[in-house]
Write a structure and sequence with these properties.
Layout (H helix, E strand, L loop, with lengths): L1 H18 L5 E5 L10 E4 L9 H17 L3 E2 L6 E8 L3 E7 L3 H7 L8 H11 L3 E7 L3 E8 L4 E9 L9 H13 L9
Parallel strand pairs: 2-3, 2-4
Antiparallel strand pairs: 1-8, 4-7, 5-6, 7-8
Helix pairs in contact: 2-5
Keywords: Signal
Protein name: DUF4136 domain-containing protein
């Protein structure tokens, strides 16, 4: 009896852990982004289907909360950054890049990072290349774009694969988790 009870509890734990969705996020960034000067953000206004408004609001709340905790302020009039996002629900072929770790790259650009000019040039040549990586996601994809509002180009994009069914009971929760995972990769902190 005791052994049966133990096996039952163990099976329930394993099933509970297996049913949790774990979103793995990737990101790419533009080497020409002026990351130290960005302080404000706003969202690109997109047409949202009426039956999906709450799901898209969940994405925007999660992004706003995350950026707010990193010191960014929302600015309706003249934001430094524009945030856009897209949910792909079908099979997607997507191109990303194999790049150095974002934190490492940002820290290397700090003025107190001690390198000779030659060492700096060599590291930039090695690190600042865009090595393409192709992804094929069969379930769907959430992509978040961070755009330099002055220049009009994407400076960072994060993405995670998942079957995002906005009509399912877990749709809002899944989108919130996935959005948080993606924005967790955008580790830029500003001092406002």
């Amino acid at each position: 009896m005791r052994q049966t009870y133990f096996i039952l509890v163990l099976a329930l734990l394993i099933l509970g852990c297996a049913s949790q969705k774990d979103f793995v996020a990737e990101y790419d960034f533009n080497y020409s982004g002026n990351f130290k000067k960005y302080k404000t953000f706003n969202f690109v206004v997109n047409a949202i289907p009426d039956d999906s408004v709450t799901y898209y609001q969940a994405i925007e709340r999660t992004i706003s909360s995350r950026l707010g905790s990193q010191g960014f302020r929302m600015d309706q009039d003249r934001p430094d950054l524009l945030i856009n996002y897209k949910i792909f629900s079908d099979s997607v072929k997507y191109r990303g890049y194999d790049q150095p770790n974002f934190d490492y790259w940002l820290n290397r650009r700090m003025p107190d990072f001690d390198l000779t000019e030659e060492e700096e040039r060599q590291q930039r040549e090695r690190d600042e290349t865009y090595n393409r990586v192709k992804f094929v996601e069969k379930n769907g994809l959430l992509v978040i774009y961070v755009i330099d509002n002055k220049r009009g180009n994407t400076i960072w994009q994060g993405y995670t694969a998942g079957d995002f069914d906005v009509y399912s009971p877990d749709g809002q929760s899944d989108l919130t988790k996935a959005t948080y995972r993606v924005m967790d990769q955008f580790r830029l902190v500003t001092r406002n």
